[in-house]
């Protein structure tokens, strides 16, 4: 039956979002230890949720994979613009799958794509001023248009936080609808009726769309999602069964002939991150519904076209989907948290917001006058600046300046700094900074980093200090953990050490250059570094490098040339001096002076001369950006770690029989010996899992030993290491099959590839913890369907051997070969 003829429709909406996590001075996401074994939380949640939803498994009765489906193409979804920007660079395969899903959904749903836009960086818009609301909406729309190649019809609001002004600004910019919680409906009535029905407390009928009339004379459609079913998905284990999920969705219909839409909205990370394999339950439910003749899958935009609203609604002002007190969670101690300890409060939220509001207003008071000279309309320029954020090419910047510059002689770098100040002032309001139970979490640290970057830009542009007063105000925000102090302590401890400027970037390259050979021009994050000269000398473990480098920000186009000297005395001991470039004769004299002191191996004298030439500040290993800092520490600590592991191996190997005897007797193992066994067994398993020549027998013996001695395995880290290795081998096989010529032969090399993968998968199945083989399964699934039908048409021996190996691979990876599907 055609969609337009059906009366019962289902729509599942997922809000996929992670807060921006980039270092504001580097524009890269640095390592986050709490995301172990992944590099950072974006990477981890992509592996657990975003990528699996692009390749969700449909299983048969024997739990074999029969199909891979792109959930995004069948549901309604929004993905935060800042997350998509990260994904475009770091996981382009998933990024492309999401864009393709929107195109496919347009074909499925009558020309209406399932992707919705999102207000740019997840700020709580009812708490924003009108100008910031307008820019957040404009940037969200522009980002959507840039990525999806069409105009958005709907927009998701951060935390579904809403007020009438926000809806009016959305409608003004062409947004047709949004999605809210049922508790955000105040009153409803049928179109043309005069009396309003009080529906507060979530009593609204979620099965129909509503029109909200706006003060400007415009209107916008609102869908109030089904609260009980949405809560069951998020908090009541509904994703444990695709069949149960389906039945719960279908239970939302009434026995009536009028058109009705059962729809839910949840955190998209429910499907895989919060609930393991939740994406499979979603895929299964959507597949069951797709096959039913009496119900149709749809998205909000298509449903609006088929069934325009014939009801009106009023919203609860300053309300949200995750705070029972409206929007107090982002400005007050309302009691809404995600946990914490008895006696904790969130009184820190108010002074945090007050401090940021002060910084925003103080920065704007200083920048408006200058911006008015640089730009024809500074606020219109800010709304348009998103085009530069999305494309920082010289051509894009020139186009922006040509369109918005008031004075043809205005300095481009100053103009870009003014715009970057505005970007940081908005990023610092990302909602996650207030959402959780404690001031000192990484989300609050992140918004403070944006605030620090904004204060630094004010300092650079106007030579005026806002940071001191900001910190005074921030000190009023008290942590629940007395030892961690207040907001000022947090800022000084966690934020200030990560702050950087062009000179600090130069020091980063000077120090890290001792451990890698940079090319003439190098890039890290948003900086370009040109080495104009470098001179190195060494004496044993000590090294001295002296040189010149030009540092340029690709964000603001600011640049400076510096002279540097860096002394490494071994291990973590670095001293680096930086100064602005001087005359060639001064530079030569400085280099010769330091060379002479270094040649005499009088290192204290080298340091004294560094002080004389460069003064303060001096830089050390602490100066480096985090990922490079970790890389160098791994190098300088390499020998120490190897020595320590060798010692632990000697202890363990020499006492292994004794440890087994103690285990058999049930006697408590001495902590020092247990520690040695734990270090060695985990290290040797990690070596096996990352090595190209894994030995299943060795792995079995190590696992048996761990079980016998009751040793704690690093299950998460080991599983990740093996998963990455299996992925790599599978991708190698997949890459080979892209060239049809490869099927003309099947030699030892090909046989070795398959044998290796077979051993790795076999080992993964024998472990006492689960290993994610999803990446390998995805590769194998697509290879099998692309290649097997072609090979079966060929009578030659090489093709026969390929078929045998590929079908064996399908069996090993629990896939149904194409002929059986």
Can you walk through the features of this model?
This protein has 821 residues and is an alpha/beta fold. Helix content is 49%, strand content 14%. The longest helix is centred in the last third of the chain and has 28 residues. 43% of the residues are buried. The mean pLDDT is 93.
Topology record:
Blueprint: E1 8-16, H1 41-54, E2 56-59, E3 65-69, E4 76-79, H2 81-90, H3 92-108, E5 115-118, H4 130-148, E6 155-156, H5 164-172, E7 177-180, E8 185-190, E9 197-198, E10 210-213, E11 219-224, H6 227-235, H7 242-250, E12 260-267, H8 278-291, E13 296-297, H9 300-306, E14 311-315, H10 349-374, H11 378-384, H12 386-390, H13 394-404, H14 412-427, H15 432-435, H16 442-462, H17 467-474, H18 487-495, H19 502-512, E15 521-524, E16 527-539, E17 542-553, E18 559-568, E19 574-580, H20 584-599, H21 603-614, E20 618-619, H22 626-636, H23 638-665, H24 671-690, H25 696-709, H26 715-736, H27 748-766, H28 774-791, H29 797-812
Parallel strand pairs: 1-4, 1-12, 1-13, 4-5, 5-6, 7-11
Antiparallel strand pairs: 2-3, 8-9, 8-14, 10-11, 15-16, 16-17, 17-18, 18-19, 19-20
């Amino acid at each position: 039956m055609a969609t337009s003829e059906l009366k019962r429709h289902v729509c599942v909406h997922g809000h996929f979002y992670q807060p921006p996590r980039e270092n504001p001075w580097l524009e890269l996401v640095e390592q986050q230890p709490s995301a172990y074994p992944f590099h950072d939380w974006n990477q981890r949640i992509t592996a657990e949720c975003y990528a699996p939803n692009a390749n969700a498994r449909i299983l048969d009765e024997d739990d074999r994979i029969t199909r891979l489906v792109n959930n995004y193409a069948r549901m309604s979804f929004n993905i935060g613009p800042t997350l998509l920007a990260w994904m475009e660079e770091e996981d382009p395969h998933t990024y492309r799958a999401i864009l393709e899903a929107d195109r496919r959904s347009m074909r499925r749903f009558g020309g209406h794509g399932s992707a919705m836009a999102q207000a740019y960086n997840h700020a709580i818009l009812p708490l924003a001023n009108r100008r910031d609301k307008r820019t957040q909406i404009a940037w969200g729309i522009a980002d959507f248009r840039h990525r999806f190649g069409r105009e958005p019809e709907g927009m998701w609001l951060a935390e579904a936080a809403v007020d009438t002004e926000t809806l009016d600004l959305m409608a003004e910019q062409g947004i047709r609808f949004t999605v809210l919680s049922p508790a955000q409906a105040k009153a409803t009535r049928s179109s043309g009726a005069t009396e309003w029905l009080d529906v507060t407390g979530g009593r609204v009928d979620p099965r129909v769309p509503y029109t909200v009339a706006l003060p400007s004379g415009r209107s916008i459609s609102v869908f109030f999602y089904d609260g009980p079913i949405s809560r069951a998905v998020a908090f009541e284990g509904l994703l444990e069964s695709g069949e149960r999920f389906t039945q719960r969705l279908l239970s939302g219909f009434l026995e009536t002939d009028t058109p009705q839409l059962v729809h839910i909205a949840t955190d998209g990370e429910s499907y895989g991150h919060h609930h393991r394999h939740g994406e499979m339950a979603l895929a299964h439910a959507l597949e069951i519904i797709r096959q039913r003749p009496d119900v149709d899958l749809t998205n909000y935009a298509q449903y609006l076209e088929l069934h325009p609203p014939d009801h009106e609604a009023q919203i609860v002002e300053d309300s949200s989907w995750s705070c029972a007190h409206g929007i107090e969670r982002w400005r007050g101690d309302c009691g809404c948290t995600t946990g914490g300890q008895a006696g904790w409060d969130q009184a820190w939220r108010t002074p945090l917001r007050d401090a940021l509001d002060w910084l925003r207003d103080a920065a704007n008071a200083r920048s408006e006058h200058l911006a008015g000279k640089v730009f024809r309309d500074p606020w219109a320029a800010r709304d348009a600046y998103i085009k530069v954020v999305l494309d920082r090419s010289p051509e894009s910047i020139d186009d922006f300046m040509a369109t918005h510059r008031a004075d043809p002689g205005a300095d481009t770098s100053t103009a870009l700094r003014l715009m970057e100040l505005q970007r940081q002032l908005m990023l610092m309001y990302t909602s996650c900074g207030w959402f959780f139970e404690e001031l000192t979490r990484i989300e609050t640290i992140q918004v403070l980093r944006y605030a620090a970057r904004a204060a630094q830009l004010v300092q650079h542009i106007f030579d005026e200090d806002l940071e001191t007063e900001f910190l005074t105000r921030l000190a009023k925000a008290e942590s629940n953990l007395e030892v961690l102090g207040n907001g000022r302590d947090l800022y000084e401890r966690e934020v200030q050490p990560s702050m950087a400027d062009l000179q600090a970037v130069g020091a980063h390259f000077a120090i890290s250059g001792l451990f890698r050979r940079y090319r003439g021009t190098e890039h890290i994050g948003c900086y370009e570094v040109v080495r104009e000269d470098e001179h190195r000398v060494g004496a044993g473990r000590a090294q001295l490098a002296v040189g010149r480098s030009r540092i340029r920000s690709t964000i603001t186009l600011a640049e400076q040339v510096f002279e540097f000297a860096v002394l490494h005395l071994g291990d973590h001991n670095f001293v680096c001096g930086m100064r602005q470039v001087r005359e060639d004769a001064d530079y030569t004299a400085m280099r010769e002076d330091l060379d002479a002191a270094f040649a005499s191996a009088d290192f204290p004298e080298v340091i004294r001369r560094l002080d004389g030439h460069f003064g303060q500040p001096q830089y050390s290993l602490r100066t480096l950006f985090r990922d490079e800092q970790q890389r160098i520490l791994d190098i300088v600590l390499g020998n120490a770690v190897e020595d320590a592991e060798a010692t632990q191996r000697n202890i363990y190997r020499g006492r292994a029989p004794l440890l087994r005897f103690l285990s058999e007797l049930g006697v408590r193992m001495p902590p020092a010996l247990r520690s040695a066994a734990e270090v060695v067994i985990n290290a040797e398993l990690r070596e096996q899992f990352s090595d190209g020549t894994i030995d299943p027998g060795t792995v079995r013996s190590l696992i048996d030993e761990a079980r016998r001695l009751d040793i704690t395995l690093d299950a998460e880290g080991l599983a990740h290491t093996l998963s990455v290795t299996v992925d790599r081998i599978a991708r190698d096989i997949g890459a080979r099959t892209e060239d049809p010529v490869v099927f003309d032969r099947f030699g030892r090399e090909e046989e070795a590839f398959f044998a290796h993968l077979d051993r790795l998968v076999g080992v993964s199945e024998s472990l006492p913890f689960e290993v994610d083989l999803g990446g390998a399964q995805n590769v194998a699934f697509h290879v099998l369907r692309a290649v097997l039908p072609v090979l079966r048409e060929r009578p030659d021996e090489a093709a026969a051997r390929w078929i045998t190996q590929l079908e064996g691979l399908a069996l090993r990876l629990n896939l149904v070969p194409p002929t059986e599907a």
